[in-house]
Amino acid sequence: MELTQEGLARRSGVSLPSLRKFEQQGAISLEALLKLLMVVGGLENLVKALEPDTTPFSSIDEVLKTETEKTTRKRGSRK
Fold it and tell me: Looking at the record, which segments are called Disordered (predicted)?
């Protein structure tokens, strides 16, 4: 894209020091990362990667049944 750090910072709205820190240390806020991805065109890939493949449940009843089965409590023994 032939953008300088200054150009990318200006177009994305991310401060230049934040951009430099991200490039050097890998530390950045989620908001700043999303802004950068919007400029360089990677936001769609991130959204696609976060989508679940399939939904394991077809109804709320299945979800509630699974939650009920998992929450079986046992009392601890006294010594």
Answer: 58-79
Report field, pTM of the whole predicted structure over 0.85: no
The owner of tokens 């299945």 is 62
Please state, in angstroms and rounded to a whole number, the distance separating the CA atoms of residues 31 and 36.
9
Which tokens belong to 70?
Answer: 């998992």
The SS3 call for residue 14 is coil
For residue range 17-60, list pLDDT tens digits in order: 999 999 999 999 999 999 999 999 988 998 888 887 777 788 88
Contact 5, 18 (CB under 8 A): no
